[in-house]
Amino acid sequence: MLNVDFSKLDGVVPVIIQDARTLEVLMQSFMNKEALDLSIATGYAHYYSRKRNKVWKKGEISGYLQEIKEIRIDCDNDSLLMKVRQIGDAACHEGYSSCYFRVLKDGDVVADGMKVFNPKNMYR
User: Fold this and answer.
1) Which runs of consecutive H residues, i.e. helices, occur in 1-124?
2) Strand partners, 80
3) What does residue 39 show for φ and ψ, rounded to 5 degrees?
4) From the CB of residue 84, how many other CB atoms can be counted at a distance below 10 Å?
5) Could you tell me which residues are beta bridge partners of residue 47?
6) What pLDDT shows up at residue 89?
7) What is the predicted pLDDT for the residue at 114?
8) What is the DSSP letter of 100?
9) DSSP strand E in the chain: where?
10) From CA 51, how far away is CA 90, in angstroms rounded?
11) SS3 26
12) In the chain, fewer beta carbons within 10 Å around the N or the C end?
């Protein structure tokens, strides 16, 4: 049983999501207790949107689900690392496989990668 300390950041903890096979960092999100409990119970990633103030299942609109393979907790019990099997080719809502598709090159931030889907066609 995870003893997660949700008290430090207004009831949420940061979660780094990593591809279980390639170890590529796909995204960073937040979980509250409800999102963590749902994730553990279903085996699929659920997160907490601070902007929308609600729990959401990753892939509920796009179909790009994240099947949880492993959950790790840090030494302070206030941050999680989740290894997942990314179902579909994209974890990023902007259409890329990873949310970390931008890179700093010669002082400019540029996209480094190809879009998997057009978000305008997905999220209406």
Assistant:
1) 33-42, 119-122
2) 15, 73
3) -65, -45
4) 25
5) 56
6) 87
7) 82
8) -
9) 13-19, 25-31, 46-49, 54-57, 66-73, 80-86, 102-105, 108-111
10) 21
11) strand
12) N
Helix (H, G, I), strand (E, B) or coil at 78: coil
Give one word for 106, left, alpha or beta, with left for phi > 0 and alpha for psi -120 to 50: left
Residue 113: name the closest of 103, 104, 123, 105 by CA. 103
Beta partners for 81?
16, 72
When pLDDT is averaged across residues 91-97 and rounded to a whole number, the result is 91
- Report the pLDDT value the prediction gives residue 124, as an integer from 0 to 100: 59
- Per domain, the residue ranges of the chain are 13-122
Contacting residues for 42 by C-beta, under 8 A, at least 6 apart: none
From the candidate CATH numbers 3.40.50.2000, 3.10.129.10, 3.40.440.10, 3.10.20.810, the one assigned to the domain spanning 13-122:
3.10.20.810
- In this predicted structure, the answer to whether residue 1 has a pLDDT above a threshold of 80 is no
pLDDT tens-digit readout, 52-66:
999 999 999 889 999
Q: For the whole model, what pTM was predicted?
A: 0.90
Which two tokens mark 28? 């960073």
Return the amino acid letter for 27: M
Type of residue found at 72: R
